[in-house]
Amino acid sequence: xxxxxxxxxxxxxxxxxxxxxxxxxxxxxxxxxxxxxxxxxxxxxxxxxxxxxxxxxxxxxxxxxxxxxxxxxxxxxxxxxxxxxxxxxxxxxxxxxxxxxxxxxxxxxxxxxxxxxxxxxxxxxxxxxxxxxxxxxxxxxxxxxxxxxxxxxxxxxxxxxxxxxxxxxxxxxxxxxxxxxxxxxxxxxxxxxxxxxxxxxxxxxxxxxxxxxxxxxxxxxxxxxxxxxxxxxxxxxxxxxxxxxxxxxxxxxxxxxxxxxxxxxxxxxxxxxxxxxxxxxxxxxxxxxxxxxxxxxxxxx
Length: 301
Hints:
The structure is a single chain. By secondary structure, this protein is an alpha/beta fold. It has a single domain (about 10-300), classed as NADP-dependent oxidoreductase domain (TIM Barrel). About 40% of the residues lie in helices and about 20% in strands. It contains 10 helices and 12 strands. It has helices at about 25-35, 50-60, 105-120, 140-155, 170-175, 200-205, 235-250, 255-260, 280-290, 295-300; strands at about 10, 40-45, 70-75, 75-80, 100-105, 125-130, 160-165, 180-185, 210-215, 225-230, 230, 270-275. The strands form 3 sheets. Strands 1-2-3-6-7-8-9-12 form an 8-stranded parallel beta barrel, surrounded by 6 helices. A two-stranded antiparallel ribbon has the order 4-5. Strands 10-11 form a two-stranded antiparallel sheet. About 45% of the residues are buried.
């Protein structure tokens, strides 16, 4: 990867109000605790709270030396003020400003999105820019979005260019066809879903593309929750989790620790993103990541 990242990284959707509001003060404390805990790669996006996450990070990082952290944001959704008669599109985020999200993968849209992100972050550059969730816009990535970001990379405006998605198949095509530095693969390389092993990870090894893994808890199921991929978990998946928990219990290792550490066992994975809502969650996740997991447990899992 063209920029440094820490093995455990901070995902900022939660401080953007995912599922429940988080005050700015609490969000700032959470980000600063993450830095203190060694999570010095931070990921955000305009989508997270319609700009809220980026503003929280901007406040938290205002007096932090720029060379001491790596930050990524995303493009593909632009934010615009609500027009008369419209209502905000929350998309799972609480306490948002009155804006609408619009898909825009044109060069102009990419540039406007990034300019607005820099303003909210209070920065003059970001280290990584991901094209965000282009599931229904594959052709536009090839035609306009990636060329725009590649040009910015050549100019030194951004350090690395990638794509972030919740699926592995399209990411694999992007890795094979484009000069990507990194992909952010969410939920597809976990203890419950290893589908990225089929094509994506081998392609990244072949092309020298770094991998950042998000969603190591599969939206909560591997962390004691009952949701899998942001929906109620089916009975078969609950049974699998119970079996994993039973194995981990024999070794005295929390399942969450194994889930968080698992992606880093693949050599092409350089970082695992974990979402944290409070300073206490940061401390907890950092401790889980540092916990010793016996090799015999990995073999059984």
